[in-house]
Structure formats: C-alpha cells, structure tokens
Description:
Largest sheet: 5 strands, mixed
Strand content: over 45%
Radius of gyration: 19 Å
Amino acid sequence: MKNPNQEYFVPSNTLYSSCLFRSHRSSGAGVTVGLLLLAVLSLLLSGCDGDGGTTTPEPTPDLGEVGVVVNSVEQTVTLFRVDDPDESPRTVDLQTGGDATPVGAAVRGDRALIPLGLYPAAVLVDLKAGQVIRTIGLPQGSGATGAIFLTDSTALVANPDRNSVSHLDLEAGSAGMEIEVGRYPQGFVETDAGIVVINAELENFQPAGPGTLTVLDPEAMAVTGEVTLTGQNSNSGVVTSDGRLFILHGGSWGADDGSLSEVDISLSQEVAHHEGFGDLPSGLTYLDGSLWASSWSFGIIQWDTESETFVRGPDDPIHPAGIPSSAGLGVDEEGRLYALTPECQAPGRVLRLGGDLSVRAEVNVGICPAWVGFGWVDIE
C-alpha cells in the first residue's frame, strides 16, 4: 500500500480551459489536436476502455433510463433518453483541457464517474442536471483508465502509470488510500468474492507479459487474491447470469491474438482459456447467454457461453449499418444492444440494434465515442 499523503494532482479547470482556448487558435492547433488523437487511439487500440460497468437501481415509475456516451477527443459526454432516442441529446463538457483522453466511465444511478486517461483526474457528472459536479485529482503521474462505484459516495479509479488504484471520496472530492495492484490496471469487475482489478501488464501500450487480476476486499480495501492469466493485454470482464467470470484479452496490435479467459475467482485461478478472438477485441458485454465484444479491426463478435463457440466470430463479424468496425458496446435495461461508430475526426453515432442486429435507432454523439453505458434519473 502506498503513502496516502503523497503529492496529488490538483485540477485547475480555468487554467486548462484557457490554455485549450489559446492552443486551438494558434499556428500549433493542428499539432495539438493530432497529438491528442494519437494518445486517444493508443489507449483505444491497447484495449483501454476503462469499463467500470453500470450499477442499476430497481426501476420505478419515477425513474427513466438514460444513455451515457463518453466522447474522447471532444472530451464531452452525450446523454440521451433510452425511451425516446430521437429526442435531442444533451452534451456535457467535461471541462478538462487539452491533455485529457477519457475512454470509459462508471455509472451508478444518476451519476457518472469518468477517468481522464493520460490526465491524472476523474470527473463526476450529474446525469439529471447534465453538468459536472466536480473534478477529483489523482496522484501525480497516475493516469486514469478505469473506475467503479463502491457506494453512492465512494469509488475506485485505476492509476495505470503507478500500478495502483485510488479510493475516492466523491463528496469531499478527494483521493485517499492508494493500493498497489498489478501492472497497468485498466478496469474493474464486481464479484461475490470482491472487486476484481484487471491488470493489462503493459509497457508503452504493448504487452509485457500475460494479464493478471488483483482481488480486493471493498470493506477493508485490502488485497485478498491474485490470478495470472494466459492471454495478454487483459482489458475488460463480465460476470454472466450463472455466475461465471470471463476476462477478455486484446493481445498485441496487429497480431490477431485476442482471447478469452474463464476464472474461478474463489479459487484464484484461470479454469479455461479460449483463443481466436481476433485483433484487439475489447468492451466485453453479456446478453442473452452470449458474450459480445467489439473491435476497431473487424466489428462485433458473439460467443455462446453454453457451447463455448462463436455464433459470429472474427471471420464472420457483425457490421452495424454496414460499418466493418466498432468502437464499443453497451446493453440497456431492456436487453437491447448498442454499438458505437468508430469515428475520431468527426461526430459519431450510437446505434441501437434489434434482435436481427439491424439498426433500429441511432443517436448523434460527439467526436470519437469510446464508451456507452446507462444510468437512471428522476424524470418527475
């Protein structure tokens, strides 16, 4: 465990907004935007989708489901009504400045927590009001590529460049205890055995060894287990309806070596490893007895958890709206699948797919959509 009294990054939104304003009006604006795009693509292609998942309250007549899309290059969040996707979506400016590269989020009820990638901070957003509540600084040089809510007022954020996770007090707007985990943590999964930290084991965005998992007791904030996996560049995970934990590995860029692990977290061991998941799959999602994943390289794949075979594999992928690539996936409360278009130089779209995988609805979002999740707000 690291010293909680170390130096922390203190965000200054006014300063960074001012610097961004000047840079986009100077002769170096093209360089600034180009470097930002390169950083975002490095995070996305290394499999960093920072997925902390969605914690869903019991739906009531007073709550309405809202879609949440993180737009990385634009540094905004798009909010849309799930029951009326044709209604004009709202845009929330994360007020971060030019160094931020958000590629994921965690959602709990009417709040979203967005880690800022290469920028050592996370932004808490009020989904009902459509505005930033506060920006929380993380340890200097930490980065921020994954988040998960523990309670309404506490959360964990991964610090990939410090091989640790930070415990956040969301009401105080402060980062406290820092816990050492594996190398380059970038995501979390909540299980009955504790919070599982997914460590990609990367150096310079390239695999430096097989992925690992660190299991945390959320009450004691202590490490209770570790698992070494077979695949490389572990990036996302999900627990299925029958309680099985699966971890997706993106592999190396261009190596076509994506894979999938099944883990018995109570035994702290990998119990199965499946190859053939293509080039840099990420964003593992569970729906109707299948695991779904997306890739900028080939689109969307579907893998049946019962037969442990592909329904649609990388050699026969799903191409929403005919687009042979996808930037991310999400599932709403009604079990409908959403896909993000892979566009980082112009505004993108989120596509809602029907049972036949055709596009049934679409929402215009910001530049470089990287993650989609869902929350609940009081619709009064």
